[in-house]
Structure formats: C-alpha cells, structure tokens
C-alpha cells in the first residue's frame, strides 16, 4: 500500500500520521503530535516505520470497527461483494459458497485494507 493510502486510513482512524523529525536515535519526535520514539529506536531505525502498515490483522480489525461505528459497513459490504465475485471468477472459486465473502475478507488483512482504501477513495470521488 502506498503512503497516500496509509495516511488516509490512519487519519480515518483518528490517529496521527507521524512525521518524524530525525534527530537520531533516542531523540526523535513527531513534528505534529510531539510523540517521542526514543524508547523503541533500534540501529535499523526508519522514520517511516512508525506509522501503521495496514498489512496486519489488527489494522484490518481497527478499520472495520471504525467503519461499523460510523454506520458504513453496509456500504463497504456492497462495494466488496462484487470485488469478491471478480476474485472468484479469476481464480475459479465457487462464489455461491456460504460465508465465502466473509472468509475472503478476513483471511487476507493486507488485501482487505487495500480494498477499504479503494472504497474510501471512491466515496470521495463523487
Ligand atoms: Zn504524530
């Protein structure tokens, strides 16, 4: 996932997309929220590494909780269901299998996070 989408999803969750002022290990802070990252710096420190990747199950769960809380889960389901159909057609997978859509969503968090980003971008195009 690109940084534009990662940032959009992070802010959708109400969290800071950290922009790190690199003052070196143990001295760096986010220029927006002031959070310090000294405690977790390592020798392979990467300023971009402090933001969510949207590749993990936790990232996906947090997004789905947010979508549900704002009442958009039906809209996302309507968006993702045909995407699942396209996936099934492309992979010779039986689309009529009960629960298949849900299983498809929850077993690949990175794909689902990407799908959520795609859905959100579409919501803003109108
Ligand atoms: Zn921050």
Can you describe this structure?
The protein is mostly helical and 126 residues long. The model has no long low-confidence stretch (mean pLDDT 86). It is built from 5 helices and 2 strands. It is elongated, with a radius of gyration of 18 Å. It folds into 2 domains: 16-50, no CATH class; 57-123. It binds zinc ion. Zinc ion (ZN) is lined by residues 16, 18, 30, 32-33, 35. Zinc ion binds at residues 16, 18, 30, 32-33, 35.
Number of strands: 2
Strands in their spatial order, largest beta sheet: 1-2
What Rg, in angstroms, do the CA atoms define? 18 Å
- Report the bound ligands by name, code or SMILES: zinc ion
Mean pLDDT: 86
Distance between the termini: 23 Å
Strand content: under 5%
Unreliable stretches (pLDDT < 50, length at least 5) are none
What global shape is seen?
A: elongated
Count of individual helical segments: 5
Main sheet record: 2 strands, antiparallel
* Helicity level: 40-55%
* Structural class computed from helices and strand pairing: mainly alpha
What is the H/E string?
Answer: HEEHHHH
Q: Number of folding domains?
A: 2
Write the layout of secondary structure elements.
Elements: H1 3-12, E1 20-21, E2 29-30, H2 57-69, H3 73-91, H4 100-106, H5 109-123
Antiparallel strand pairs: 1-2
Give a brief outline of the structure:
This protein is mainly alpha-helical. It is built from five helices and two strands.
